[in-house]
Amino acid sequence: MRLVAVGRMKDKAELALVERYLKRLRPRLDIVELADGRGSPDEIKRREAQAILAACPPQAFLIVLDEAGRSFSSPGFSEAMAEWSALGRPLCFAIGGAEGLDAAVIERSDAKLSFGTLTWPHMLVRIMLVEQIYRAQAIAAGHPYHRSGRP
Ligand SMILES: C[S@@+](CC[C@H](N)C(=O)[O-])C[C@H]1O[C@@H](n2cnc3c(N)ncnc32)[C@H](O)[C@@H]1O
Question: Which residues bind S-adenosyl-L-methionine per the record (predicted)?
Answer without folding.
Answer: 65, 96, 115-120
